[in-house]
Structure formats: C-alpha cells, structure tokens
Amino acid sequence: MAEALHTVHVNLAADSLERSYPIEIGRGLLTDTSRWQQWVGGRGVVLVTDDQVGPHYAASLHSALGEVGRFTTVQLPAGEQHKHMGTVQQILDAALGDRHERQSLFIALGGGVIGDMTGFAAACFLRGADFIQVPTTLLAQVDSSVGGKTGVNHAMGKNLIGAFHQPRRVVVDLDTLGTLPEREYVAGLAEVIKYGLIRDSAFFDWLIQHASDLKARHLETVATAVRRSCEVKAAVVAEDERESGARAHLNFGHTFGHAIERIQGYGQWLHGEAVAAGMVMAARLSSARGAIEPATVAQLIDFNQSLGLPIGPPPGVTASKLLDAMSSDKKVAAGKVRYILLQRLGSPVITESVTKRDIEGLIDA
Ligand SMILES: NC(=O)c1ccc[n+]([C@@H]2O[C@H](COP(=O)([O-])OP(=O)(O)OC[C@H]3O[C@@H](n4cnc5c(N)ncnc54)[C@H](O)[C@@H]3O)[C@@H](O)[C@H]2O)c1
After folding, report:
1. How far is the CA of 157 from the centre of ligand 1 (A)?
2. Which residues lie across from 288 on neighbouring strands?
3. What is the pLDDT of residue 288?
4. Is the Cα torsion angle 348, 256, 164, 114 positive or negative in sign?
5. Cα 272 versus chain centre, distance
6. Is 116 touching ligand 1 by the criterion CB < 6 Å?
7. What is the pTM of this model?
8. pLDDT per residue as tens digits for the range 45-82
9. Which of 33, 230, 251, 339 is deepest in the core (most CB within 10 A)?
10. Measuring from atom 3 of ligand 1, which residue has the nearest CA?
11. Does residue 261 line the site of ligand 1, with CB under 6 A?
12. CATH 3.40.50.1970 corresponds to the domain 3-178
C-alpha cells in the first residue's frame, strides 16, 4: 500500500515559481496508480531506465501509469561509462522515432546516471520537455535528483556537457532501496552526512545516534534522513539555483574527493566513498585552523569507519598528485583551487588559502 511519509518543496526564485516542485518521499509510490494518473494526466511518456533497475521496477511503474498517450521505454546499459552524448542520442532517437511531442513527459527511473541523462535529454527534446525523477539509489534520492543539474561526461572530464533543467517532481519510493547493493547504499550515506556537516549540526548528531538503524535501512530512519537531506539541498538550490554562491557549499569534501577519483581512475572507489574521504580531509583542515573541535573530526572518522566508508585517501595518493588533480578540475576558477572548509560545524566557508604543506599534513599524519 502506498504511503506518503514526507513532502519537501523546492521553492525556486519568485520569477520562476512555476518551476518550483515537490519531492514526495514514501513507500509504494512507484505503483500508486491514482497518484501517477494525476501526475501524468494522460500525456505521452518516455520512461528511461537501466538494465539493473528496469527489470525490478519498470513494468510495475508502467502499469501504474494506466492510460497514457504514446509510451516508450528506453532501457540503457547501467554504469557511469555510458553517461555520454551517444547514450542521450539513443534516448532522443527513441522519443523522436515514436513521434512524441513536447507535451510528453520523460520519467527517469534509476540512479544519478539515468537521472542526469534523462534530464538532459528532456532539456534538449523539442527545446524542452517536462521530466519526473524517480531516483532509486540513496545518492540520487538525497542529491542528484534534486536541483536541476543534468548532463553527461566528455572525454575531457566529468559532467562537462549539460543544462540546468528542473524536474516537475521527484518521487522517492524508499522501497526501491530494497534491491540496492550495500556498497552503493553506504556510499549514498556520505552525502547525507555532508548535509549535517554543512548546514545542520543537530542532524549530524542525530545521524550518529541512529548509525545502526541507518545501516540496517530502518524505513522510518531512512525516511527522516532523506527528508532532512532533501530539505537542505532544496534550501541551498532555492538560494542559489545556478551555483554563483552558496550552492558551492554542496561541494564540501568534493574537491579532495574528485581529485582522489581522478588519480585512482574512475570506478575504483564509488563517488560517495571518495567524498567520505574528502570530507574527513576537509574537516581535519578546518580543525587544524581551530574552526571545529578535534572531537568533531573524531566523531566523523568513527562514523565513517562504522559504516565502512574511507577516512582518507588510498595509499599512493600524494599531496602533489592531489594538487595536480585539483588544479585540472573544471570548477577551478582562474587557476585557483577553492576549498570548502567549515568555519564551525554546520557552516562552511570557501577559501583558496590551503598550502601544499597543509595537504601533506593530511596524508602523512
Ligand atoms: N545532477 C546532480 O546534481 C548530481 C549530483 C551528484 C551526483 N550526480 C551524478 O550521479 C551519478 C552517480 O549516481 P549513482 O551513485 O546513483 O550511480 P548510478 O546511477 O550509476 O547507480 C549505481 C548502480 O546502482 C544500480 N542501481 C540503481 N538503483 C538500484 C536499485 N534500486 N536496485 C539495484 N540496483 C540499482 C545502477 O544500475 C548502477 O549500477 C554520477 O554520474 C554523478 O555525476 C549528479
């Protein structure tokens, strides 16, 4: 039976109220015919999924849609290596081949890879069609499905091609986490912890207190964690939709994390694992400056360890390699690496003043 547990609203700027949208969090939502009929309203549907998620959920979502106009399913191979223009072209070919019109609705059923590509395909299709995110990884539920960043990778780097295109709604059915592999689930928790660190110290404490329920995927605990994460992300996106300021705070742990992914080669550590290591590094730097208590860093390290997340870069990653990798990141403005540190727990600060020696201290200690 469907149960809506929470709804979070992404309220965009006053001039774009019509683009504001809800995030529905609950269970059984994927198969709730009455909700889907209301959301789709008889329009055509292009359902995009991957070959790990589709076999579990695509048929039940399809039947929940009931009577729709044209219906197309695009099932893509799973994995980051398929997040490129060629795959988006496949989505567009299928939609055009089935003669969908701009009124058709794209539905992204999957993790962040499917969400990013489907959103981008929808942004390009006949100059912009609506889409709904149905995220099925924890990372996608708390992060990538919210905020309207869509796109694909290029040989020159990750997410270099894309568009801001907000979904019409985000439907988080927590039941889908039942089939998510443990490693993917835990990697998603890293982004949840991030929201506590950057915006809500009480949430950080709550997460630590509920570590074992979180790890066990206790439904109400996960629902609360997803809700609070979405509230924080929604607030940041509402404040700074196009990342000219506060949205950069969401990159806490990512400057180091992206560099680790780059040095290791993508696919060694999951993104969330690299971010977990990066957050410990950023927290240690913040603590070395007296901005947060050493006890907070110790809590973060213990929490990561209890979940099985890394607490620092893997062997062989030196300060020089990190600096090289960080300088070639697309987010580097005018050759300066910008670090997101904490000025206190729950409040980040952006700074360029981190030296090679500071970074060496994080690796050799
Ligand atoms: N747009 C944004 O704001 C934003 C933010 C963060 C990350 N991202 C992007 O998100 C992507 C990573 O997303 P991800 O971590 O969800 O990875 P993913 O989409 O690759 O999913 C991970 C794996 O889990 C499988 N899977 C997904 N849901 C499942 C389920 N319920 N049951 C069983 N298997 C399931 C997928 O098939 C895949 O093999 C990256 O491309 C990253 O750039 C985007």
Report:
1. 18
2. none
3. 96
4. negative
5. 9
6. yes
7. 0.96
8. 999 999 999 999 999 999 999 999 999 999 999 999 99
9. 230
10. 144
11. no
12. yes
